[in-house]
Task: structure prediction
Amino acid sequence: MINTMTDTQFKAMVKMCLTMAEHCKDTKDFKKILSFPDNGYGMAFVVMLSRLVDGVNDMEKICQTLRDIMMLEGGIQ
Result:
């Protein structure tokens, strides 16, 4: 059985990641708190976000990327 995440759950996860990112002083702090307790879609998102953090190494760009994701398909209310 494949564990799936609802749209609401995904949007909530992105919003939480953005909130954490906005309150971290740098990418090292953000990476320390970035985790997701399953092996499904949430973990896939966190792995990709972690790789983005490594590649970009700029918290403002990370926050902007998360904001952009939230704006997809009508955004998060």
